[in-house]
Amino acid sequence: MTTTLCRTVVLISGSGTNLQALIDGAARQELPIDLVGVISNRPGVAGIERAQKADIPAEVIDHTQFESREAFDEVLREAIQAYAPDLVVLAGYMRIMTPALVGAFAGKMLNIHPSLLPKYPGLHTHRRALENQDTHHGSSVHLVTEELDGGPVIAQSVIKIDADDTEVTLADKTKKAEHTLYPEVVKWFANGQLSFVQGTVILDGRSLASPIQLTEDIDIA
User: Fold this and answer.
1) Which one, of 80, 161, 89, 94, lies nearest residue 122 by Cα?
2) CA nearest 88: which of 103, 67, 74, 99?
3) Given CB 3.0 to 4.6 Å as the disulfide criterion, which of 17, 93, 113, 138 pairs with 11?
């Protein structure tokens, strides 16, 4: 275990509710992290306001101002590295990353995806779960690799799909569960409990054979 705060940069594209969960956890001293920077690829999003309210350095690098994905990711890489992070957290960051950017932070970049991976990589996960009449849904925290939503899965929140669930209600329940799941995995990394060796997840000194599953009973009323 470590007593040094883990320097953490968060990438966002929108409202930043998972960012807020990290801000709150750090403020309660439940997470041994130092949120040193927040970067959004979109201007005017609520996540930037959340960071500013918490006195976290925040900046916007608007991807629409770049002629290519490679050019944007190069500037983003430099911006992230300027914070000298121990951990990079993707919290609703809606951009596909180039191999060069992923490689620059190999083994210390996490993402959360709203499905029980390997089910439903990509978009519209809640709709696809309902269309396939799944009984359970959830989110997965995984190591970011060059494969979209394909890195080793560390932990998942599992929620029950009710008969009256819609795409909206299922999205709400999934998001609420994420606010518990993501800080927990970040805490494992910050504490030195979680590491990656040649793409294998190591938790508490042991290779993780399957993702840790946290079952959530979510009430959105």
Assistant:
1) 94
2) 103
3) 93
Categorize the per-residue pLDDT at 199 as very low, low, confident or very high, splitting at 50, 70 and 90. Answer: confident
* DSSP 8-state secondary structure symbol assigned to residue 105: T
Give which of 140, 151, 143, 79 is closest to 114, Cα–Cα: 140
Given this structure, which CATH class describes domain 6-216?
alpha beta
- Tell me the chain's radius of gyration from C-alpha atoms: 17
Cα separation of 7 and 116, whole Å?
28
The residues spanned by each domain of the chain are: 6-216
189/203 Cα distance (integer angstroms): 9
Three-state secondary structure call for residue 12: strand
Q: Distances from the Cα of 129 to the Cαs of 28, 121, 134, 181, 213, in angstroms?
A: 35, 11, 5, 20, 18
pLDDT at position 172 over 50: yes
Contacts of 56 (CB under 8 A, 6+ apart): 23, 35, 36, 37, 38
The residues annotated with a catalytic role in the active site are 113
Question: In this structure, which amino acid lies at residue 98?
Answer: T
CA distance 29 to 58: 21
Q: Check whether 53 has a pLDDT greater than 60.
A: yes
